[in-house]
Write a structure and sequence with these properties.
Elements: H1 3-7, H2 18-28, H3 36-49, H4 51-59, H5 62-66, E1 86-90, E2 97-102, E3 108-112, E4 119-125, E5 128-133, E6 138-142, E7 149-154, E8 156-158, E9 176-178, E10 184-190, E11 197-202, E12 208-212, E13 220-221, E14 223-224, E15 236-242, E16 245-250, E17 255-259, E18 267-270, E19 281-289, E20 292-300, E21 316-318, E22 321-331, E23 336-340, E24 347-351, E25 357-360, E26 371-374, H6 376-380, E27 386-388, E28 393-395, H7 416-421, H8 427-438
Parallel strand pairs: 14-18, 24-26
Antiparallel strand pairs: 1-2, 2-3, 4-5, 5-6, 6-7, 8-9, 10-11, 11-12, 12-13, 15-16, 16-17, 17-18, 19-20, 20-22, 21-22, 22-23, 24-25, 26-27, 27-28
Length: 439
């Protein structure tokens, strides 16, 4: 065939557009029968990015599902299948419907959970929803992306314990009574056991840690290892799952690690060799950021400037009260804190006792970058709305926009900022505030 004849046969694809030739080539490839090792490699890469991408890949065809792990089979507590960057938002007039939002990518999805029509949501642990059945005290974990439901023993506590009793194991336990779910303001998961352990913090007032695994008959109390003087120093303030372990901060700014290897009694052990000296009022929170664990500390009071030893250029005044915001990276191996200048130009943190969340400000540009947003509990008590590390300024709490007439946070009408500020545990106070503001 001559060159002229070849040019007159477009069916051979020599002069077709690249896109058309690519589509034709795709018809020839047997995608469903890719080599098993290649399918597993692709699935593994997607799983490291986001569990949602992994689920989409498995949904493409049956042969791909057959050679990849099913998140709903085997160990449903498997840490690989947790939707860590996903949060669940309420919807108006929809008892079981929720909006899922990925705080890192901005992706959204609407999901209907039949379980939420019969359960209360207590919080979120590593992306899993902690539920308790309405009218009862049975606890379960729901994976909002895979639908896996993991059951735990009924949530009860010893009526004879003199709370808070974190330090005397001899006081645990004999008779058991149901726990009021509204006292739960912190949740976490520890993967050092098999299956993994769910950790709950019972607050306010009690500051008590309780732990259980699927299949356990009852919850176990956590007590503080006697490494140093106990007392107020050990009262738990916030929880975080990091690297498969559970860490907590205390009301004095110390960090403790949960140790489940010591037998029947979970132990809370102080992590750092030397905790920063604190001689003023303090709130401390742990938050994950790009593979690191950070501690956010908010301090306030006259002692900051009265011989506190702090750099006065980093102290700001709020309503006449000296205040200071700090960020540290927690070096677990080195058992120390490394001072940070903030979170960077594309992140902001929402901190509170019920949750701490890092949000991409590139995906959510209405949220100020390199900033800390306080929860409504602190705002209600006269503190600021947000602190900005770039210019070391604090801003007034803003009135929520697009509020639901039912006075309850929802994904339909609320901005993401307002929703995250109104964390679980303080909705009742927030509703009263909204009602007064509208009347």
């Amino acid at each position: 065939m001559s060159i002229t004849e070849m040019a007159s046969h477009p069916a051979r694809g020599l002069d077709q557009p690249v896109a058309k030739r690519t589509r034709a080539a795709m018809k020839w490839r047997d995608w469903k029968n890719l080599p098993t090792d290649l399918v597993k490699d692709i699935a593994g890469r997607l799983l490291t990015l986001d569990i949602a991408e992994y689920l989409r890949f498995r949904a493409a065809c049956k042969p791909w599902r057959d050679c990849t792990d099913n998140p709903r089979m085997g160990d449903e507590m498997d840490a690989r299948f947790r939707p860590r960057d996903w949060i669940v938002l309420y919807r108006c007039n929809d008892p079981s419907g929720r909006t899922l939002v990925n705080t890192a990518t901005g992706a959204r999805a609407y999901v209907d959970f039949l379980e939420l029509a019969t359960h209360h949501q207590l919080g979120t642990a590593d992306g899993l929803l902690v539920l308790v059945n309405k009218g009862g005290n049975d606890v379960s974990l729901l994976n909002p992306l895979t639908g896996a439901l993991i059951r735990f023993p009924p949530l009860t506590i010893d009526a004879a314990v003199n709370l808070p009793s974190l330090y005397d194991p001899s006081s645990f336990p004999t008779g058991w009574l149901p726990v009021d779910p509204t006292t739960i303001t912190g949740v976490s998961i520890d993967d050092s056991t098999s299956p993994s352990t769910l950790v709950l913090c019972l607050r306010p007032g009690w500051h008590l840690i309780v732990c259980a695994k699927p299949g356990d008959e009852k919850w176990a109390y956590g007590c503080v290892a006697k490494q140093r003087t106990t007392g107020k120093v050990a009262l738990v303030q916030s929880l975080l799952t990091f690297g498969g372990r559970c860490y907590v901060t205390t009301v004095t700014g110390a960090i403790m690690e949960l140790d489940l290897s010591s037998g029947a009694r979970p132990l809370l052990k102080f992590l750092l060799d030397e905790d920063p000296p604190v001689n003023t009022e303090i709130f401390s929170f742990l938050v994950r950021s790009q593979g690191r664990m950070l501690m956010v500390r908010y301090m306030f009071g006259a002692n900051l400037v009265l011989g506190g030893g702090y750099d006065e250029t980093k102290i700001f005044m709020w309503r006449g009260c000296p205040s200071r915001m700090e960020v540290f990276e927690v070096d677990v191996v080195g058992r120390r804190l490394v001072t940070q200048s903030g979170f960077g130009d594309d992140q902001a943190a929402f901190v509170g006792t019920a949750h701490t969340i890092m949000v991409s400000t590139k995906k959510f540009p209405k949220i100020a970058a390199n900033s800390v947003y306080l929860n409504y509990y602190l705002r209600q008590r006269g503190h600021f709305g947000a602190y900005h590390f770039e210019d070391r300024t604090a801003t007034q709490p803003r009135a929520p926009k697009g509020r639901s007439r039912k006075f309850y946070p929802c994904a339909c009408h609320w901005e993401l900022e307002d929703y995250l500020v109104c964390e679980k545990g303080y909705h009742k106070d927030y509703l009263l505030y909204l009602l007064a503001d509208l009347l």
